[in-house]
Structures are given as C-alpha cells and as structure tokens.
Amino acid sequence: MPTTQSLSRAQARRVALAAQGFCDAPHATPTMRTLVRTVEHTGVLQVDSVNVLQRAHYLPLYSRMGSYDPALLVRASSQRPRRLVEYWAHVQALMPVELWPVMAHRMAQYRASRGKWWRDVPDELVDRVRAEVAASGRPVTARALEPRMGGGARNRDHWGWNWSEARKALDYLYMGGELAIAGRTAQFEVLYDLPERVLPAHVLALPVPTPAEAARELVLRAARSHGVATVSDLADYYRMRSTRGGVEAAEGPGAMPPATDVVAGLVAEGELEEVTVEGWTRPGYRWAGARLPRRVRAATLLSPFDPVVWERDRALRLFDFHYRIEIYTPADKRVHGYYVLPFLLDDELVARVDLKADRRAEGGLLLVRSAWAEDGAPAATAPALAAELRRVADWLGLADVLVEPRGDLAPALSAVLSAGAC
After folding, report:
1. Distance CA 230, CA 260 (A)
2. CA pseudo-torsion sign 91, 97, 99, 104
3. How far is CA 352 from CA 42, 161, 324, 331, in A?
4. Is the pTM of this model over 0.70?
5. What pLDDT digit, counting tens, does each position of 239-266 carry?
6. How far apart are CA 413 and CA 368, in angstroms?
7. What percent of the chain is helix, strand and coil (3-state, nearest 5)?
8. How many CA atoms does the CB half-sphere of 263 hold within 13 Å?
9. Residue 357 exposure: Cα atoms within 13 Å on the Cβ side
C-alpha cells in the first residue's frame, strides 16, 4: 500500500495559493491574456451587487494581476470574442464560456423543478417573455420588458427581492438555459438575450456531456483551482452535492453523481492523491498537477468573495482565519465592519480592513473604516498594508487614503501613511 503523503498547514497554504495564481509572474501591463490566465486559476468570478469599494467580480483579478483596466473584464464578458458568461456556477458567477454545455444538466433540473421561486409564474407568461426577448433582436433588461408584459408590478413589501412576475419569468428562463446574460448596464441591470446571440457558435456546437462526465469536469476544475481540498471543498466550488442527498437537485434521471463518488474515481485515475493535512479532521485530496512552491510572495487585499476565503471553514483550516461577512449584520453588532477585506502577506492572512470608496469626496478618498491585525501578525504588516492601500486607491482612481481610528492596527497604519513611508 502506498504511504499517504502528509502536508503541514503551511505547505497546504502554499499549494492552495499557487493553484489560485499567486505564484504567476506578473505582467507589467495586464492584458486579456493575463485575464484569461488568471481565470484559469480561479475558475469562476463570483458576481455580487455590493459596490461599496468595487464590484466583487473585479477584485479577484486585481488581487492576482495588480492594477489593471476593468474594461478588460467588460470586454471578456460582454463583447466578441466572448470569453466569459454569467451563470449559477458557484453562485451567480462569471465562468468560461466552454462551461455552458457542462451546466446543461443543471439547467435541465431547474427547468423541471421550477422550485418555490418560479412555481407560481404562469406558463403563458413564461412563453410570452421568451417570445418577446427573441423578437427584440437585442439584449433587454427586466425594467424595459415589464411594461410590455403585464406580468404584475414589482412587489414593494420587502426591501430585498422586489421582483415582478415578468422578472421571475426571465430568471426562470435564464436558470434553465433558455436565455443567457449578454452583459450588464452601467446600473448593474442584467441584459438578457437568446443563447445563440450571446455564446460563440463553437460553444453551442459542443456536445453536451453526460451527467457523470459533467460532474467529473467540475470536480477536476475545482481540484485545479484549490490545489488541495476536502471533498466538501471540491463540491462547494461549483455547488454540487458532496454525498447522495446533498446540496444540489434531488436524485433522479439526469442528476450528476455526488462529489464523493467523483473524487474516488479521480483518485483511481491518478488525477487526485489522498493526503493528510495538519489540523484537518477529514482527508485532503491534492490535484496531481498542483505545485508546492518553497515560498509565496504576495501583499494584496482579497475580496470577501474571493475563492481563497469564500468557504469560511476552509479559510479557518488553512489560515486559522475566522471570517464572517457582516453586510447583513446590524451596525451595532458588527465586530470588524461592513465590507471587510482580508490582507494576504506572503502565505498568511495577517490583517483585515473595512474599506469604502468615497467617490464624492474631492479627488476621491479610500476610507479605512477600521483596521485589525491578526494574532502573530509580523512587524511588516502595517507598512505592507499601507503600500497596498495606496495601490488599490490608485487603481480605483482615488486621490488619498484616510484611516479612521477604529481597530488595533489603525494607529500604526495611519502613522505609516502620514509619514509617507509607503
């Protein structure tokens, strides 16, 4: 019997960060080639509407590529030759276009199940919405379509998902793959269109994999992006079931096998190797092509929706970093702040900062609402973080950085920035 390899927590961190692209040689001026290379590491870019600093899907690229032109991502996700398209891949996310046929079984299950969100939307309205989008000849927003559909006014009873019936019909058609997202407006509204007017022809011509083939592809992509992971980590990356009866749709014809079964097959193929990781109570699985660099050199902020930290239990296991997003927590109950970004220094998460881009201030201002050091953070943390805050402010076109006096790291950070030492 071969001996199971053991990794220290530090080694597992370095494997994971290399898999996420933090060891790639930087390009002086990031190009579309840089972006494509980066997405090969991240697999997907989670989309979120919160814009207190910068929208979520732009930030993982910045963390790995440095200052880049956000127009690159707009081109990749909304213009020909299209490289990325939105779908429910992790959650709402930009994914490589070639994953569209891999998601076909997920789309079919949404069409069949309808679910509580779309259950009461009349079939007649769904048919009319589909026909209206087809006849429009160009991408349309829900707001533009609603007056022509008579699908009911938007519900104003709740602050959150105030969707009309027509908007729900659009979402049902999108989740079922009958519509695709062509892009978003400047106001972040979704633009819907027919898949054949959004996806490249060669992608639509690709054969649809079987459920087993699709599951293998998704787990293997998750393994490449994670480097080393548990079964639950791998399942979470593309929101699959870990075991039978798990997260995704109910079992039945067309359902993909659970990640546990897929992992066992990939181990037998030699694509994955079972490993033990210091501090992990469950087996780890290392992708056969994963690198173990001697050192990771990084100094960058991470989005709350970055693949390195989006699964909070994994962040705790790898980095001993207890992380919760507090956007929906009442202000008086927040521990660290509203929009808190971890700071990665080499292979450790050494600090966290609550940031806001104040674009109404003269010249623009990066507000550091609070700054906190992790236990054992090195002396280099404050100057390295100050330099990173200057860099992110420059990327966002903000003239200055202002540190407010909250958090144990705030005084040192403010002193470094005031001294101009960064």
Report:
1. 10
2. positive
3. 22, 30, 11, 17
4. yes
5. 999 986 544 444 555 689 999 999 999 9
6. 10
7. 40, 15, 45
8. 26
9. 18
